[in-house]
């Protein structure tokens, strides 16, 4: 029933920027925590950033100061602004939605992913 559709991925040179978007279905967008995960070849999916129902955010250490998660409630859209990209940021990025207002446990819903490739 819940649908998450990512966009904005692509190829960028190291040091460049991209903004990912995720359009979420439903009218309860603001009631749930949301976030971004990513997966590189041969690695497990890893947490990137989350935002809770009152706007609080959390980031993995390697992206702090470079990535910003935000949302537009009126548009039911989640964003991930990425700057100063590094080759190690190359991955498929997934939009996720949690079952509660804070990002605890495993996300309930996952998007299909969007590829981000950072060249050196």
Structure description:
The chain starts with a strand and ends with a strand. It is mostly beta strands and 120 residues long. The model has no long low-confidence stretch (mean pLDDT 95). The strands form two sheets. Strands 2, 4, 5, 6, 9, 10 and 11 form a seven-stranded mixed sheet that branches. The chain has a four-stranded antiparallel sheet with strand order 1-3-8-7, with no helix packed on it. Strand 7 and strand 8 form a beta hairpin.
Structural class: mainly beta
Strand element count: 11
Distance between the termini: 40 Å
Overall mean pLDDT score? 95
| Helix-strand pattern | EEEEEEEEEEE
Largest sheet: 7 strands, mixed
Please report the number of helical segments: 0
> How helix-rich are the residues, as a percent range?
under 10%
Return residue spans where pLDDT drops below 50 for at least 5 consecutive residues: none
Strand composition percent: over 45%
Tell me the radius of gyration: 13 Å
Shape: globular
């Amino acid at each position: 029933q819940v649908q998450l559709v990512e966009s904005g991925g692509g190829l960028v040179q190291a040091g460049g920027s991209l903004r990912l978007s995720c359009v979420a279905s439903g009218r309860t967008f603001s009631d749930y925590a949301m976030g971004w995960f990513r997966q590189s070849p041969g690695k497990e999916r890893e947490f990137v950033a989350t935002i809770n129902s009152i706007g609080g955010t959390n980031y993995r250490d390697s992206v702090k100061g470079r990535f910003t998660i935000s949302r537009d409630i009126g548009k039911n859209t989640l964003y991930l602004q990425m700057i100063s990209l590094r080759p190690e940021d190359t991955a498929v990025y997934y939009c996720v939605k949690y079952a509660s207002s804070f990002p605890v446990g495993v996300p309930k819903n996952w998007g299909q992913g969007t590829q981000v490739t950072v060249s050196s």
